[in-house]
Design brief:
Largest interface: A-B, 81 and 51 residues
Structural class of chain B: alpha+beta
Shape of chain A: globular
Oligomer: heterodimer
Helix content of chain A: 25-40%
Largest sheet of chain A: 6 strands, antiparallel
Distance between the termini of chain A: 9 Å
Order of helices and strands of chain B: EHHHEEEEEEEE
Strand order of the largest sheet of chain B: 7-6-5-4-1-8
Number of helices of chain A: 10
Radius of gyration of chain B: 23 Å
């Protein structure tokens, strides 16, 4: 893996926007440019490295499926921070997972090219960065390096996955897709998902989560009710970029769980993806597959680490780097000194998992300092389909870390 | 194997469709407390049949007594009702006169509704000629009327919606109330 500097296309912004990629920058007061799509460099991989990433992703997928089975059969889900209602829903969903298929997920991998890729976490429920990986970096490749290749058949994978869901479960039902609005990135990702579902033959439309209605014939919220869109069309298939744990704790959470358990509503991603999206699965994986080359030591109890280990604390339900901190541990699992890095956020009350810090691919930043890259490896319907690379000058990759294209 | 990784085709439908998902203009139906049915049979699918019948009879009675009455069909329609019918009203002296009144599209089965709801009729209906004001205390059924836009009302309050232009509800219809805003309490990105 090598980072190569290159002059961006002078009109890259216009080209990005012509693709509907309107979240290429996220300016703030501190960072008025707010670059998110960054084509001032690309990462060049070898074909062998791509093979390694693909094989590791396929193996990690199998391991995560096995870990989900173990978490349920060994009744470990309370340790994941789930309440009784969520556990019931997860168990129900897993027991008939053939009828509750997954479309997509994204592993975040540490990979330097020198050793095996290591699993940092699995964004199994609401992964984004999808359009960037599938389409935006692809059009960049076609324009800049038409003779090179890219680890990217994400689009074909999504169309195939939606086709499979439709043929298996769809019937004549329309597909509704929802996210929280307004939010440029999530809405953009939703538009792309809509595009792929339409291409797969669905009748589909997007709806803001706040616009989803509960239609009932009486004041009793559980009496013969169902979810509807703004036109009062019944929602039977729902793709969401809203985390399961948020939706279940919302006012309609009880109706949602009921509808899914009664098979009146199919939600994608399915409820069982909550298990592998939860960071507690990292500790379970390490217990099940100790010293596996694609895993990093992870424990729920930080006293399990030898003093002097540099450890990353991750909230079980955290997202986008929030509330992650990195510290060197002393005796008894207590941090020795101040954290090396820390991100603010709203997570952590649900508990933490602790993971040994593992090196990321690094490259000198043009203006001094170091860039570190995380590989987002896309699993579409259980198949490794491509990667997107996020880069940051800090130790923690977060929601504003830049997306940098790749080729091989 | 690596040579097969190239994406062979990507169709892009996204350009120029960066439409917002922000909520459309909606009538607020969340105040609704009861269900609207076309007839007792529709009601009996949800609740006790005897109660359905009782509420229906009460609603019919309220309709006969208290529905706004107009001297012409045009006036009745101009008040916003989707369909009107003529009716004979006997005066105290025994003479009968002809009026127009809105058709009862269905009835509302719900909690006991006493005063405070105002008269029946669409919101833009003129002051009623024969109404005694509030609905009869204790009646568990209320007549429901529709306007041209498909909104259903009882006591001047919106209680549901059907397709615009609907003039009558097919028998067996339960008009459902919709509440929204039950998802999305966290107004932040759900992506990861």
């Amino acid at each position: 893996m090598e980072r190569v500097g290159i002059a961006p296309r002078p009109d890259w912004r216009a080209k990005a926007e012509a693709l509907g990629f309107d979240w290429h920058s996220a300016p703030t007061a501190d960072d008025p440019v707010g670059l998110y799509w960054d084509e001032s460099a690309y990462w060049r991989l070898t074909a062998d490295e791509v093979d390694v990433l693909e094989a590791a992703s396929m193996e990690l997928h199998e391991m995560c499926m096995a870990a989900t089975e173990a978490a349920i059969s060994r009744r470990l889900l309370p340790h994941f921070g789930f309440d009784a209602a969520a556990i019931k829903l997860i168990e129900n969903s897993w027991s008939r997972r053939d009828a509750a298929p997954s479309v997509y997920g994204r592993f975040d991998l540490a990979y330097t090219g020198g050793g095996p890729p290591k699993l940092l976490e699995y964004n199994a429920d609401t992964p984004t960065g999808l359009y960037e990986a599938s389409v935006v970096q692809w059009t960049w490749l076609e324009e800049r390096f038409p003779d090179s290749d890219q680890f990217n058949s994400i689009h074909e994978g999504l169309v195939a996955a939606w086709t499979a869901v439709r043929e298996k479960n769809g019937g004549d039902d329309p597909l509704h897709l929802t996210c929280l609005a307004p939010h440029a990135e999530d809405e953009g990702t939703l538009r792309y998902m809509l595009d792929t579902a339409l291409e797969a033959g669905w009748t589909a439309k997007n709806i803001s989560a706040a616009d989803i209605g509960w239609s009932a014939p009486s004041g009793d919220p559980n009496a013969a009710g169902y979810f509807v869109d703004v036109e009062d069309t019944r929602i039977r298939k729902l793709f969401k970029i809203v985390p399961w744990d948020w939706m279940l704790s919302d006012a309609f959470g009880g109706q949602l769980a009921n509808a899914v358990m009664k098979r009146e509503l199919q939600v994608i991603e399915p409820a069982w993806k909550m298990v592998m999206a939860n960071k507690a699965v990292l500790a379970l994986l390490w217990e099940m597959y100790p010293d596996h080359p694609n895993l990093v030591p992870a424990f729920m109890d930080r006293r399990a680490f030898a003093p002097g280990t540099t450890v990353v604390a991750k909230p079980l339900l955290g997202r986008e780097g929030a509330n992650i901190s990195i510290a060197v541990l002393g005796e008894g699992g207590e941090p020795a000194g101040a954290p090396l890095a820390h991100m603010g956020g709203e997570y952590g009350a649900e508990g933490y998992v602790y993971q040994t810090l593992t090196p990321l691919a690094e490259a000198p930043a043009p203006g001094g300092g170091t860039y570190r890259a995380v590989i987002g490896s896309w699993m579409i319907d259980g198949v490794s389909r491509g990667i997107g690379i996020r880069e940051d000058a800090g130790l923690i990759t977060h929601n504003r870390s830049r997306f940098v294209p790749h080729l091989f | 194997m690596a040579a097969m990784r190239k994406s062979r085709y990507v169709t892009i439908l996204l350009a120029g469709v960066a439409t917002s998902l922000a909520a459309c203009d909606q009538h607020d139906m969340t105040k609704d407390e009861g269900a609207v049915y076309s007839d007792p049979a529709a009601c009996a699918k949800d609740v006790d049949a005897a109660a359905c019948e009782q509420a229906y009879v009460a609603a019919k009675e309220e309709h006969t007594k208290q529905a706004p009455k107009f001297t012409t069909q045009e006036e009745c329609l101009a008040a916003g009702f989707t369909q009107c019918e003529s009716t004979e009203v006997k005066t105290a002296s025994g003479a009968s006169s002809s009026f127009f009144m809105p058709m009862m599209m269905g009835y509302m089965m719900g909690r006991m509704m006493g005063g405070g709801m105002g008269g029946f009729g669409a919101p833009n209906a003129p002051p009623q000629q024969t109404s005694t004001g509030a609905g009869a205390a204790g009646a568990a059924g209320r007549p429901v009327y529709g306007d041209r836009n498909g909104y259903l009302y009882t006591g001047g309050q919106p209680v549901g919606r059907v397709a615009p232009g609907t003039t009558s509800l097919p028998s067996g219809t339960a008009v459902r109330s919709v509440s929204r805003g039950g998802f999305g309490a966290r107004g932040m990105s759900g992506g990861s």
